[in-house]
């Protein structure tokens, strides 16, 4: 009994108390049987040998039947008690073994007797509340370890569920940020498209201005040539001073206009060149910004702590389930896992 824990010792004390009560009732019932038979049979003052033998035989039969029934009841009670232990063992997939040879071991029987005397005769029993049914709790040995691991896994499963919900909210936030980044990228793409359209428009305007300038310059050159030809034809004629001044002024104005056109052409070319350089620079900056936003978004999604924590916890949980499955199959190879 010393090798058992306190809970099991108390259970055996309850069993001994019940057996002690049954034993006392049995002895009292046997005494009552003798009294009843004596009152019924011993009516005369003297009896012969045959009458005494008949009385003894009658009492013997009554006592024998009574004791036989009580012993049978005790055996059946012991079977019911063992059935409770077996059910609790099967609950944890254990197979109990009974060593029948130890039931008649005198030393062990004396130990039980001594234990009973210490508990009842010397008043050393510590009364504790008892239950009508043994609780199926096994906290020792490999089964206790497996039970504890199962409870830990259940708690960890609840924690993982909470973490999963938190990760889902984090992923939703990241998706919202992703949508915002995509809208910003789309806005930048629209800006690039509008800048390209503006460049094409400026190029078309420049092309039209160049054509108009060429036409104006050609017209001025043609006018100058016509004037020169007319002057050659009229070289022998007399020309008054007013005509000469007018022609000179026309030539001067034409030359000034040509210079102005040339200057304006240079200014327009420089302006268009500057605008093209500035537009290309803006396009490059916007393109780099779009690429940077996309790279940052991919990096945040792949290296975010919620996603990394989710991967790590799933790997640890799978490893723990594999270890627990191996331990269960080690002690019960026939155990079938639910899918």
Automatic annotation (TrEMBL):
Self-associates. Interacts with BBS9; the interaction mediates the association of LZTL1 with the BBsome complex and regulates BBSome ciliary trafficking. It is found in: Cytoplasm. Keywords: Coiled coil, Cytoplasm. Regulates ciliary localization of the BBSome complex. Together with the BBSome complex, controls SMO ciliary trafficking and contributes to the sonic hedgehog (SHH) pathway regulation. May play a role in neurite outgrowth. May have tumor suppressor function. GO terms for biological process: negative regulation of protein localization to cilium. It comes from the Eukaryota. InterPro entries: LZTFL1. This is Leucine zipper transcription factor-like protein 1. Belongs to the LZTFL1 family. GO terms for cellular component: cytoplasm. Pfam families: Leu_zip. It comes from Neocallimastix californiae. Residues 143-205, 276-327 form a coiled coil.
């Amino acid at each position: 009994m010393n090798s058992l824990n306190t809970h099991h010792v108390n259970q055996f004390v309850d069993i001994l108390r019940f057996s002690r009560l049954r034993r006392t009732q049995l002895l009292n019932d046997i005494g009552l049987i003798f009294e009843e038979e004596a009152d019924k049979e011993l009516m005369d003052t003297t009896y012969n040998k045959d009458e005494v033998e008949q009385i003894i035989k009658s009492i013997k039969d009554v006592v024998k039947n009574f004791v036989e029934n009580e012993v049978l009841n005790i055996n059946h009670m012991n079977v019911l008690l063992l059935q409770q232990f077996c059910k609790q063992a099967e609950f944890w997939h254990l197979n109990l073994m009974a060593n029948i040879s130890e039931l008649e071991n005198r030393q062990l029987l004396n130990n039980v007797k001594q234990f009973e005397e210490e508990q009842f005769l010397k008043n050393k029993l510590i009364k504790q509340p008892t239950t009508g049914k043994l609780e199926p709790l096994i906290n020792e040995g490999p089964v206790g370890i497996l039970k504890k691991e199962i409870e830990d896994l259940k708690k960890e499963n609840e924690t993982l569920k909470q973490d999963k919900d938190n990760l889902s909210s984090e992923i939703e936030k990241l998706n919202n940020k992703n949508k915002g980044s995509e809208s910003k990228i789309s806005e930048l793409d629209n800006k690039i498209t509008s800048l390209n359209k503006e460049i094409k428009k400026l190029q078309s305007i420049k092309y039209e201005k160049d054509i108009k300038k060429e036409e104006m310059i050609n017209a001025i050159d043609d006018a100058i040539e016509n004037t020169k030809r007319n002057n050659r034809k009229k070289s022998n004629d007399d020309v008054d001073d007013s005509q000469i001044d007018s022609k000179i002024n026309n030539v001067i104005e034409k030359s000034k206009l040509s210079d102005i056109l040339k200057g304006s052409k240079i200014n327009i070319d420089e302006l268009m060149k500057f605008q093209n350089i500035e537009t290309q620079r803006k396009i490059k900056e916007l393109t780099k910004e779009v690429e940077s936003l996309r790279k940052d978004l991919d990096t945040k999604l792949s290296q975010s702590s919620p996603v990394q924590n989710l991967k790590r916890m799933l790997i640890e949980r799978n490893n723990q389930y594999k270890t627990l499955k191996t331990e269960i199959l080690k002690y019960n190879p026939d155990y079938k896992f639910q899918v």
